[in-house]
Amino acid sequence: MSQPVTQPQASLYIGGRFVEGQGDVLPVMFAFDGSTIATLHEASADQVGQATETAQAAQPAWAALPPVERGRVLQRAAAIIRERNDELSMLETLDTGKPIQETLVADWESGAAALEYFGGLAATLTGQTIPLGRDWAYTIREPLGVCAGIGAWNYPSQIACWKAAPALIMGNSMVFKPSEETPLGALKLAEILTEAGLPDGVFNVVQGRGAVGAALVNDTRVAKVSLTGSVPTGQKVYAAAAEGMRHVTMELGGKSPLIVFDDANIEDAAGAAILANFYSSGQICSNGTRVFLQEGIAQAFLDRLCERIRNIRIGDPRDPDTQFGPIISDAQAAKIRTAIAAGQSDGARMVAGGPGEGAFVPPTVFADATDDMQIAREEIFGPVLTALTFRDEAEVIARANASPYGLAAGVFTRDLARGHRVAARLEAGTCWINAYNLTPVEMPFGGVKLSGVGRENSAAAIEHYSQIKTVYVGMGDVDAPY
Ligand SMILES: NC(=O)c1ccc[n+]([C@@H]2O[C@H](COP(=O)([O-])OP(=O)(O)OC[C@H]3O[C@@H](n4cnc5c(N)ncnc54)[C@H](O)[C@@H]3O)[C@@H](O)[C@H]2O)c1
Fold this sequence. Notes:
This protein is of the alpha/beta class. It has 2 domains: 12-253 and 451-469, Aldehyde Dehydrogenase, Chain A, domain 1 (3-Layer(aba) Sandwich), CATH 3.40.605.10; 257-433, Aldehyde Dehydrogenase, Chain A, domain 2, CATH 3.40.309.10. It contains 16 helices and 22 strands. It has a 7-stranded mixed sheet, sandwiched between helices.
């Protein structure tokens, strides 16, 4: 596998070409060893304005194309991504620190699936006709204009594609700001979209920390903001977007429950708990970090879980055998260690893992936790599983729902009637029955309560990147009263 060049031509991508940022330096680190793999510059305020202006100028001609032509561009981009998946996945591994065995299957591949899926929806983006007797009305599904996309660092390229694909197929243009921790993938996406035939200026990338994101959100040319990030950032961005009555999609954090009933297949439930807590070193928004175990199987489940994670291969994420990589940054590792220390001082029993050292925090499991402990309430965004026990269905539903978050939830049981009954009552945007953390593009994904607003993926995402114009058609005389 060839090593990618990690230093991009320049930091920003505006109007179909690379442009150097005029703002502060943005070093890009490889989380595994802290080495600098690229040095970028933030966009200046003027450059954010140039990007939105360019996007605004390019949007009408793009929207005027037949939708299937837009679809072809997205599908060509998907094909290019798949051809270059090895190289792009290695770049993603360097940018995020995630094991290559994960990035090869879960990152660009998922991004390509979104481009392919929304490209294929092109011919279905129609309105309705509404009969009204003599008269009638019809609706036109229109783009919103310039959409701002702002990404988190855990799935940077997937997030960029999940936002770009529905926005672009609807005839919007986009200015995307990746997380300052992982700025490289979005630039590759911009290049690939150009190569696939996207007109210049329809997809632009600016780089920077929160202030650059805020400048983008406050730009009057922006019609919609789609953010993937934490709840506190979401609250700020939603409030700022409200000033200009901008549309929003908010994909935010969670503290999702994974419920395992006594009759569950323990092997499958333990596998799901592993995916729901330790994949991507636990840095996944929908993770099922509150694992509710029915009393009868609690010990057997924990024994099997600990046995399965004991031999996990932790190491250099570039090594194809590595299963578990470093944490994205020192700051995030410190945050996770603080949470682990709180778990210990609150009296939970640590049955696996611990604080680790340097960039690595091993898979950590707390048993005998209670709902009021910090580790059971707050999003940690690291490889820390909190196990809680319960007696019956009504109790576990109430406890699972007693959280301000509502991103996702999981239920393991062999009793499928119970599985559906519990899923129906859980306050979560996505529920898995006898599965966890699978997010195919065909199904809507997003949160309720503090976890977000709007949905990504599936045809439902189109609603969030379009608006409806109604046209009333009078077919006869106008009947005025005076
Ligand atoms: N629901 C989902 O789909 C999903 C997916 C991945 C991650 N997440 C969440 O993301 C969080 C982790 O990512 P993170 O640490 O990068 O999140 P973060 O909130 O710190 O940052 C997210 C993005 O927002 C930008 N930003 C920060 N302040 C801003 C402001 N005032 N205005 C505009 N933009 C601003 C950042 O630069 C970054 O690009 C976790 O809470 C996780 O649950 C959610």
